[in-house]
Amino acid sequence: MLETLFDADLVTAVLALVGLAAAFGALLGFAGERFRVEGNPVVEKIDALLPQTQCGQCGYPGCRPYAEAIGEGEDINKCPPGGETTIAALADLLGREVKPLDGEAEATPRVAFIREEECIGCTKCIQACPVDAILGTARRMHTVIADECTGCDLCLEPCPVDCIEMLPRDTGRDAAPLPPGPGHRPVLPTPAWRTALIASDRPSSSTEARHG
Amino acid sequence: MAERFDFPGGITPPTRKARATRSPLCTPPLPRRVILPLAQHAGAPAEPCVEVGQRVRTGERIARASGLISAALHASITGRVAAIEDHPLPTADGRRGPCIVIEGEGEDDWLTLPPLDWRQAAETTLLERLDASGVVGLGGAAFPTQVKARIRELHAIDTVIVNAAECEPYISADDLTLRHFAADVLEGARLMARLAGAERILVGIEDDKPEARQALEVAREATLAEAVPVEIRAIATRYPSGGERQLIKRLLGREVPSGGLPADVGTHCHNPGTLRAALAAIRDGVPLVERVVTLTGEALARPGNVVARLGTPMGELLGFAGLDTQALHRLVMGGPMMGEALGELACPVVKATNCLIAATRSELPDPPPEQPCIRCGACEEACPASLLPQQLYWFARGREHDKAERFHLFDCIECGACSYVCPSHIPLEQYYRAAKQTIRAQRREAARADHARHRFEFRQARLAREQAEKEARRAARKRAAAPATRPPAGSDAQSAAPAADLRGLRIAHSAARAAERKAEKALARAAESGEADPATLEDLETQLATARENRQAAEARLQAARDVEEKPS
């Protein structure tokens, strides 16, 4: 029994394995040190899915901090500007359950608008804007660069004269709706001349319909 | 007829072209009032350069191109600018958009540019003239011709293709253009061949247009001495052989890659009407103010092709062709396959209006209700782009946009062949169009979000830099105020801590410098390639500014730490 234990073959095998383990351990240790990634790489991916309004409605100061928090286990349903689509995308990325939105969803994208005649030039909104989308200087009228505004609301609170309001953003061409599906006729525009024809049966409203 | 190359799929619907091709091209009376939409071309809308009340002459520029892809707009009649306001546009959704309205004087007072000789003039002069004349593709997409002609800067072109296939039913505008102006079209093709550096011209024409083909042959015989050879090739009538990709495949056997352009396979396709308009802009100095429009459909007493001024209200033009409003059931701009059903007769004729179909109920009946898909696969056999329409349909309905993209949704040319053959009457291409637009909107929003992120990062970097500089200044002031208090020499623990700190700051500083250089390089590369759009360049500039702020902040911190280091020693 003891002889087999001290068999030369066994010693060689054990030595070889120990040697391999040491070599790979060293290699892995070196690689871990040399190619260390600062920060969590998944945070980048989460950040890319967030709408970047920097509005802070999630309770974090900006989208990036919220992305970091999600990476550490925070709920994915705290982003009202992103809405259901963002939650679905995050759930997809992280393999978590889709949750209903915490807070009220925003119906349409919006931009801030400063009623310029009321502005007193206090620069408070400029300091609050997370994306430098407000132009102006002390005691001069301010204005919002609509193209850069993310619609985050952060400028509303600091304004001492309440001259800022949120307006719906022009999103360009509206997306064509999907057809209604099986069992329905595809939607075609109601021709104006046909309504005019029907309306012509009623003499009182015929001119109105033709021009309306 | 045996053809060497062919595209897959396709359909052969009844062409119904005979009614409009019986009479020759004619010119309706000048409209009293024209409505010219600012966005009647692909790209950014034009910017008005006239004021309300101003008198304009026919051919005078009333709106200039804005941005890289855009086209100028010209007055199509002589008169006064009555208004610049929103009017219904000729689109299926009945959208309204800004238009310039001109009240006419009843007479034409032309304002033309000096004629140019396209053989002699410099290429830049020719391109500038095309730009100034507002010439766009008249086949339907209305892409600015000047932008297309600049392709030489990026691609080598060997063949200019004249796309005279005109495969869609009803439309005969190109047919009539060729019958009347074949010589002009060929000369226009030679002009484009010169601009593109092509060595041959290939005319692809469907075999149901013998008169146009005859006219082309005559024009070709007359110019045999020209340097660039012209070849006229008749192809069997089949929809959609007038699609760029399908025509190139059929004529040359070359396949335009997915997501690519015809220029990627050395070809350039132009519609005959575009070529004629381009030649008129250069040879005669006449900007694009009129086009050939097919007026057809059973609700018209005198169907035919007319040379219509842009901006003419459609109702007026159709009235000229003898419209019976009682019988009119559906008004379609374009062909029955790809055209748009309009809801109003007051819409103006625009640069893309090649055909107006005033159809009766029996001619173009309302589409029957959509039935469930029975997975018969007929759509897949008809698809000229070798896609899987059925799969795309499921993905579009389920809003699985990423999967639809993986199945090459964007290679769909929306020809409608799949809907035509569908036994369940599913309006398939409407699903694809909706999916494409949703995806485009999502991309736009994603680009916006990216842009906002870069601006946010820049702001954070700027605030950090300001903070760092402020602290450095404060530390310097503090030291200046109390210079005498020196730490006792030889305290190792104290001097070691700043040293490690300094090393960290130095590393941070060189990392920031490297990031700045990287951002600089990225910006230079994008600017040099010339392909990046202004928004991308702006974003790269913001990123560079962010890197610069970071570097300055690191510098300030490092400098402050060095000062602390030097003082005690």
TrEMBL record, chain A:
<keyword id="KW-1003">Cell membrane</keyword>
<feature type="binding site">
    <location>
        <position position="55"/>
    </location>
    <ligand>
        <name>[4Fe-4S] cluster 1</name>
    </ligand>
</feature>
<keyword id="KW-0812">Transmembrane</keyword>
<feature type="binding site">
    <location>
        <position position="63"/>
    </location>
    <ligand>
        <name>[4Fe-4S] cluster 1</name>
    </ligand>
</feature>
<keyword id="KW-1278">Translocase</keyword>
<keyword id="KW-1133">Transmembrane helix</keyword>
<feature type="binding site">
    <location>
        <position position="119"/>
    </location>
    <ligand>
        <name>[4Fe-4S] cluster 2</name>
    </ligand>
</feature>
<dbReference type="GO" id="GO:0051539">
    <property type="term" value="F:4 iron, 4 sulfur cluster binding"/>
</dbReference>
<keyword id="KW-0472">Membrane</keyword>
<feature type="domain" description="4Fe-4S">
    <location>
        <begin position="38"/>
        <end position="96"/>
    </location>
</feature>
<keyword id="KW-0479">Metal-binding</keyword>
<feature type="binding site">
    <location>
        <position position="58"/>
    </location>
    <ligand>
        <name>[4Fe-4S] cluster 1</name>
    </ligand>
</feature>
<dbReference type="GO" id="GO:0046872">
    <property type="term" value="F:metal ion binding"/>
</dbReference>
<dbReference type="GO" id="GO:0022900">
    <property type="term" value="P:electron transport chain"/>
</dbReference>
<comment type="similarity">
    <text>Belongs to the 4Fe4S bacterial-type ferredoxin family. RnfB subfamily.</text>
</comment>
<feature type="binding site">
    <location>
        <position position="152"/>
    </location>
    <ligand>
        <name>[4Fe-4S] cluster 3</name>
    </ligand>
</feature>
<keyword id="KW-0408">Iron</keyword>
<protein>
    <recommendedName>
        <fullName>Ion-translocating oxidoreductase complex subunit B</fullName>
        <ecNumber>7.-.-.-</ecNumber>
    </recommendedName>
</protein>
<feature type="binding site">
    <location>
        <position position="155"/>
    </location>
    <ligand>
        <name>[4Fe-4S] cluster 3</name>
    </ligand>
</feature>
<dbReference type="InterPro" id="IPR010207">
    <property type="entry name" value="Elect_transpt_cplx_RnfB/RsxB"/>
</dbReference>
<feature type="domain" description="4Fe-4S ferredoxin-type">
    <location>
        <begin position="140"/>
        <end position="169"/>
    </location>
</feature>
<feature type="domain" description="4Fe-4S ferredoxin-type">
    <location>
        <begin position="110"/>
        <end position="139"/>
    </location>
</feature>
UniProtKB/TrEMBL annotation, chain B:
<keyword id="KW-0997">Cell inner membrane</keyword>
<comment type="function">
    <text>Part of a membrane-bound complex that couples electron transfer with translocation of ions across the membrane.</text>
</comment>
<dbReference type="GO" id="GO:0009055">
    <property type="term" value="F:electron transfer activity"/>
</dbReference>
<comment type="subunit">
    <text>The complex is composed of six subunits: RnfA, RnfB, RnfC, RnfD, RnfE and RnfG.</text>
</comment>
<feature type="binding site">
    <location>
        <position position="379"/>
    </location>
    <ligand>
        <name>[4Fe-4S] cluster 1</name>
    </ligand>
</feature>
<keyword id="KW-0479">Metal-binding</keyword>
<keyword id="KW-1003">Cell membrane</keyword>
<dbReference type="InterPro" id="IPR019554">
    <property type="entry name" value="Soluble_ligand-bd"/>
</dbReference>
<dbReference type="Pfam" id="PF13375">
    <property type="entry name" value="RnfC_N"/>
</dbReference>
<dbReference type="InterPro" id="IPR017900">
    <property type="entry name" value="4Fe4S_Fe_S_CS"/>
</dbReference>
<keyword id="KW-0813">Transport</keyword>
<feature type="domain" description="4Fe-4S ferredoxin-type">
    <location>
        <begin position="360"/>
        <end position="393"/>
    </location>
</feature>
<dbReference type="InterPro" id="IPR017896">
    <property type="entry name" value="4Fe4S_Fe-S-bd"/>
</dbReference>
<dbReference type="GO" id="GO:0046872">
    <property type="term" value="F:metal ion binding"/>
</dbReference>
<keyword id="KW-1278">Translocase</keyword>
<keyword id="KW-0472">Membrane</keyword>
<dbReference type="GO" id="GO:0005886">
    <property type="term" value="C:plasma membrane"/>
</dbReference>
<feature type="compositionally biased region" description="Low complexity">
    <location>
        <begin position="481"/>
        <end position="498"/>
    </location>
</feature>
<dbReference type="GO" id="GO:0051539">
    <property type="term" value="F:4 iron, 4 sulfur cluster binding"/>
</dbReference>
<comment type="similarity">
    <text>Belongs to the 4Fe4S bacterial-type ferredoxin family. RnfC subfamily.</text>
</comment>
<dbReference type="InterPro" id="IPR026902">
    <property type="entry name" value="RnfC_N"/>
</dbReference>
<feature type="region of interest" description="Disordered">
    <location>
        <begin position="518"/>
        <end position="569"/>
    </location>
</feature>
